[in-house]
Amino acid sequence: MTISVENPVFVHEDSTTEKKTGELRMDSGVPMSKISSDDEVFLAPEMNAFGRQFRDYTDTNSERQKSVEHFYKTQHINQSLDFVKKMRSEYGKLDKRVMNIWECCELLNEVVDESDPDLDEPQIQHLLQSAEAIRKDYPNEDWLHLTALIHDLGKVLTLPQFGGLPQWAVVGDTFPVGCAFDESNVHHKYFMENADFNNPKYNTKTGIYSEGCGLENVLMSWGHDDYMYLVAKENGSTLPSSGLFIIRYHSFYPLHKAGAYTHLMNEEDKENLKWLHVFNKYDLYSKSKVHVDVEKVKPYYMSLIKKYFPENLRW
């Protein structure tokens, strides 16, 4: 399968007046990337590595789809507010291991995401595919290259040395807990068996939160996103807030795909969401059977790790 990962085009209402500058700027609230001088563009493939549409959860005859649906049923039943608080308390100690970022990248060779209908490759390849695609199109945004490389490192939670959490507690789409489960959540029907579904404190639009409170103050379903966010933040990463936002919310598809839960966002969230929309295109559509040469690109990413992270981190 061939993926074209050249310069992306973000549609603008007045595109006829745009010049081919190759520069990124903020225009009408949307991150813009100009077409390169040779008109090469990012071509999002129509089909995933299995020959189906991306994020298609409707093919009930597919064995992989059946497995994915079972995953979401288990996740939706078990991801309650109490469970999330328990996990954040336990893993917020960051006492599982001390290692550097690249060591964690290598650990991901042992992980396959059972919730992903688009890929069954080792996670390290997905990270590098996303990072290299972004690197080509945004060569000056090195923080974004590194964010792409590390965004899924929290999936090591499935490994024995990190507690061997079940996949439903590590991967899959994320969503707020402590308020009503929006119907845009995939396989929403299974939330009816969640302990919080009929709790009047938690089943209203805002629940325990308030409008505009900011996503930083909202508890999300527990998984690799929130864990890696805690690792980066508590270890003193110097990534910009937009990078940390991408790490924490890249699986929050109800927000950045369906536009749900925006009533909880503040102004900083809205600014950071622009970069998440940029990132998501590469996170989703760069998944491929074509592997990246790890040793060839490793020196570049090691330099970024040194720039934005301490040598060793608590996990």
Automatic annotation (TrEMBL):
<feature type="binding site">
    <location>
        <position position="155"/>
    </location>
    <ligand>
        <name>substrate</name>
    </ligand>
</feature>
<keyword id="KW-0060">Ascorbate biosynthesis</keyword>
<dbReference type="GO" id="GO:0019853">
    <property type="term" value="P:L-ascorbic acid biosynthetic process"/>
</dbReference>
<feature type="binding site">
    <location>
        <position position="55"/>
    </location>
    <ligand>
        <name>substrate</name>
    </ligand>
</feature>
<feature type="binding site">
    <location>
        <position position="250"/>
    </location>
    <ligand>
        <name>Fe cation</name>
    </ligand>
</feature>
<feature type="binding site">
    <location>
        <position position="283"/>
    </location>
    <ligand>
        <name>Fe cation</name>
    </ligand>
</feature>
<feature type="binding site">
    <location>
        <begin position="172"/>
        <end position="173"/>
    </location>
    <ligand>
        <name>substrate</name>
    </ligand>
</feature>
<keyword id="KW-0408">Iron</keyword>
<comment type="similarity">
    <text>Belongs to the myo-inositol oxygenase family.</text>
</comment>
<keyword id="KW-0560">Oxidoreductase</keyword>
<dbReference type="GO" id="GO:0005737">
    <property type="term" value="C:cytoplasm"/>
</dbReference>
<feature type="binding site">
    <location>
        <position position="126"/>
    </location>
    <ligand>
        <name>Fe cation</name>
    </ligand>
</feature>
<keyword id="KW-0963">Cytoplasm</keyword>
<dbReference type="InterPro" id="IPR007828">
    <property type="entry name" value="Inositol_oxygenase"/>
</dbReference>
<dbReference type="Pfam" id="PF05153">
    <property type="entry name" value="MIOX"/>
</dbReference>
<feature type="binding site">
    <location>
        <begin position="250"/>
        <end position="251"/>
    </location>
    <ligand>
        <name>substrate</name>
    </ligand>
</feature>
<dbReference type="GO" id="GO:0019310">
    <property type="term" value="P:inositol catabolic process"/>
</dbReference>
<feature type="binding site">
    <location>
        <position position="152"/>
    </location>
    <ligand>
        <name>Fe cation</name>
    </ligand>
</feature>
<keyword id="KW-0479">Metal-binding</keyword>
<comment type="pathway">
    <text>Polyol metabolism; myo-inositol degradation into D-glucuronate; D-glucuronate from myo-inositol: step 1/1.</text>
</comment>
<protein>
    <recommendedName>
        <fullName>Inositol oxygenase</fullName>
        <ecNumber>1.13.99.1</ecNumber>
    </recommendedName>
</protein>
<dbReference type="GO" id="GO:0050113">
    <property type="term" value="F:inositol oxygenase activity"/>
</dbReference>
<feature type="binding site">
    <location>
        <position position="151"/>
    </location>
    <ligand>
        <name>Fe cation</name>
    </ligand>
</feature>
<feature type="binding site">
    <location>
        <position position="224"/>
    </location>
    <ligand>
        <name>Fe cation</name>
    </ligand>
</feature>
<dbReference type="GO" id="GO:0005506">
    <property type="term" value="F:iron ion binding"/>
</dbReference>
<feature type="binding site">
    <location>
        <begin position="113"/>
        <end position="115"/>
    </location>
    <ligand>
        <name>substrate</name>
    </ligand>
</feature>
